[in-house]
Protein 1
Amino acid sequence: MKLYPAVDILGGKAVRLVKGDFEAQKVYDEDPLAAASRWTEEGAEYLHVVDLDGARSGEPVNLGHLERIATELEVPVQYGGGLRSRETIARALGAGATRVVLGTAAFTNPNLLEEALQEHGHERVLVSVDVRGSEVVIKGWTEPAGVHVREVFARLIERGVRTLAYTNVDRDGMLDGPNVEDLVWIAGAAGAPLGGDRGESDGRLAGQLIYSGGIGTLEDLERLASLRTERRLTNLEGVIVGKALYEGRFTVAEARASLAG
C-alpha cells in the first residue's frame, strides 16, 4: 500500500483540522513547502496536498504553493480543493499536480467530471468521497451532497472513475483509528461492478481506493495492510496520513514499513 503524507494548506500555512472543522485548526508549519520537504526527506514517495482555502471558497487559492512543492521536491503530488471548472483543473495540472482531486464538482457538476476524465485520463483524476455520519459532504465538508454513502461508489465507477479517496470526516484528526468494518464495505463497493457482488466480473474495471481518517498508530496502518490479504481487498491502494506524522506518532519510514507488511 502507498503512503500519502498530507499537506493541508490554510491561510498559506500547513495545518490540520479536527473533524473538518475550520475553527478547530492547528498550524504545524508556516511554510507548506517545509512540511512537504520533511516528509520527502523521511522517504515519502507521494504527497497529498489539500487547498483548504479553495475547498471553502470554490476556487483554488494555493496553486503557488503547489507549484513550489511539485517543482522543488519532484515527487508525484495529488492536489484538491476548489477545483470546480475545466480551467481550474487545467491550472492545477499545469502547476505540477500529477493527479487532481475532485470532490464537490463530482457531485454537483456531472458533466465536468466526465470532461475531466476524457481530457486528462482516469489516471490523472481522483474523486474524493468525504463522509460525515452516513452522508457524503461537499464544499469543504460544510454541506450534504444529498446522496447516501452506500449509493455513491458503484455509480462513480460506472461514470468512469478509477481511483477514489474515502475520508471518514468524523475521525479526521482524532487519531482514534479507522472504522475497519465501514472500510471493508466501502472497499468492496468500490471494487464491485455495478449491480454485482465483489469478486464477480462483467468486464468492468474496479476502482482503486485510498483511505483517510483517524490514523494514529502504526498498528492502524498494519490493520489496513492486512485487509488486502485477510479480506482480499486488493483494491485498497493507499492511505493518507496527516496529524499522526505531524505529532510524531511515527515517521514516514516506519509508516511505509508497516504498510508493506
Protein 2
Amino acid sequence: MRRKDREITDLGEIEAILQKARYLHLGLVDGDAPYVVPMHYGCLLEDGRLTFYMHCAKEGRKLDLIRANPKAFVQIDADEALISGGDDPCKYSATYRSFMGSGRARIIEDTAEKMGGLSLLMRTQTGREFAVNGQMAAKVAVIRVDIDAYSAKSRPVQNAASSQEEPDEETRKALADMDNKELFSVATGDRGPIAQHYLRGIIRTYRAKYGNDADLHTMVQTVLSEEE
C-alpha cells in the first residue's frame, strides 16, 4: 500500500468497517473478463480469518461463474463523504474507510451452514438476531467467500471536518419537508455536497441508535425531532 499512513491493521477497526457497511462488491472471473456485482452480506471474523456470506436466487450468472472458477474479490467502503474544495476543483476530496480482500468462493449446500450464514447476514444488515429455519434456507442459494489476503485503509472524517460547512437552519428545514424521492436526490449529490453530507450524517446517527434502516423520510424526521 502506497499510503502507509492510511493503512488500517487493527482487526477491531477492520471489523467495525465490515459491521457498519451494508453491501459489498463481489468480483468474479468471467472467462478473460472481470464481473462485479453489489451484494448484501454477513461477515465473520474469527482468529484473524475472515468469511463472508451472501445470498441470491438459486440460478444465475454469479453461481455459474463460481462453479467454473472460484477465485473471488471483495470490496467494501463506509463513511464516504465529500470534502468541499469550494471554487477550486483540485481541492475536492473525500473521507472514507475501505476494505479489499481476495479469496475463494463456493456455493453452500449444507443446510445448517446455510441457516447460519443467513442468520449472520441478517445480523450484519439489521443489528438484530433472526432464527432462520431450513425451509427459509431452501428458497435461496448461499455463497461463502473465504478471504486469503486483505487490506484496509481510511481517510478519517476528523481530518477533514474543518473543510465541511455546517448546514444552516434553512437546509435543515428543507430536508425535513422533503419526501423520499427528494431525499434520494440529496443522497446522490444532486442538491449539493453540504446537504448530502448532512443527510448522510443523519442516516449514520439513525443506524447507530436504532440498529437498522428505515425509509429516508422516517430517518430524517426521527433524527431531526430528537435534535430539537
Protein 3
Amino acid sequence: MATLGTSRGWRCLEVGAGHGSIARWLAEQVGPQGLVVATDLNPRFLTEIQLPNVEVRRHDIRTDPLESHTYDLAHCRGVLAHLREPHLAVRRMVEALRMGGWLLIEEGNLSSIGAVDADHPLAESFNRRNRELVERITQTKLFAPSFGPQVRRLLEEAGLSEINNEGIQVIARGGEAHAR
C-alpha cells in the first residue's frame, strides 16, 4: 500500500477490516485531513479503534449501501475467497472509487504450497498431504483456498483496464518460524 502513494487527505475504504491493523496504518497515512472507513460483518474487534479519522461500520459489501465515487483507495485482504459471488463485492468496491482511485485486493493461493527441497525424503508426502488438505477445504465451500489467481479476471470483468498483479511466495523450511 505504501507504494501506491497513500497520502494525507485520502479517503480509504477497508473492507473486512478484521482486527483493524490496516485501518490503523491507513489512518496514520491519511492524517487528520483524511478518512478511513473500516467495514466488517462483525466489527467487534474494531471497537477499540478510537481515532478521529476512522469510521467503523457494520457492513456487508455484498448488500449494504456504500458511497459512490468517493474513495481514493479501496482495499480488502482475504475477503473475496469467502464469498459465493465475489464479483459483486469487486463491482461495489470499484463503484465506490473516485476517478483515478486504487483498488487493492490481496488473496491467497494455498495450492502453491509445496516442499522446498524436492529431494527431501518427506517432500512427496508433504506435497500429497497439502493437495489433500486444499481439496478438503475446497469441498467445505467455506472459502476457496486457491482463490488468488482469480482476482485478475474479476478486475477485468469489473471494467478495469490498468491492472497490475503479482504473486509473492514465501520460502521457508520446516521448523522455521514462518513454516510453523
